[in-house]
Amino acid sequence: MTMRYFEDFKVGDTEEFGNYKTSQEDIIEFATEFDPQPFHIDPDAAKEHFFGGIIASGWHTGSMLMRMIVDNQVLASSSMGSPGIDELRWIQPVRPSEILNAQSEVLSSTPHKYKDDRGFVKFKHTILNQNREIKMTMISTILFGKRPAAEVSQ
Amino acid sequence: MSTRYFEDIKIGDAIEYGSKTLTKDEIIAFAKKYDPQPFHIDEEAAKETIYGGIIASGWHTAAVTMRMMVDNMIDTKASLGSPGINNLRWHKPVFPGDTLRVRSEITDKKRSKSRPTMGTTFGKLEVFNQHDEVVMSFDSIGMMLARNTED
Asked: N- to C-terminal Cα distance for chain B?
């Protein structure tokens, strides 16, 4: 994958990636450690619940999105990390045996005020399943290094 | 513990709870699955970064925070889940051996107009390390069952 820098993320740019498969085993494993509520870890109890079956912890869904973002936008980039998330919305629960994709849209691009070599890119990421149902949305910021001068002149 | 319903939550209520120490093995295991960036999973690569060593994925910090909330604050009888969170900030890195705790304060509450048997609570949640530094904070939103249909 080509290395991407701050300049490569332009307002309005969209892309889609992921193909992330969920499983009951993963959902239960995550929730047993981090979110042991009955509708995340107990298939029988979950049947009686409003959702009618096991659903993933919202933080698990967020972590799955992170994996998709890391694999497709962060690793082959000059990312310097993220200051945080402006807004996270759990729209519909994620269930076992779904295939998730992430849609990415660049909302804004702002050079760092004091450090000339970097800038903030604000994204909206939307998780969709195989039926194009929206599961989660997230507005967050990633700090990217600018393209080094040596590469600009090439 | 008796079930705490919407009416039992008061604006200004603040509690501190939890004590979770993250080990290097836990940090690496989480990050290999969900956030495989070099400074989360590779000790040698992490030495070259500004952090000087492995740090936890921000999502790992959020996940262990959720565990402390479930163990200490969320009443599964009255909780109806959450539509989301706002303004999450990772203020400082979390290193192996750091011990985290949570401070949670209720900032507002609103009974549902369309479904008065439930209400929404709004909170400010902060996660501290053992040096009393805030490592993460966010604004929480919780939906809860009410005991009655009016205050």
From this structure: 22
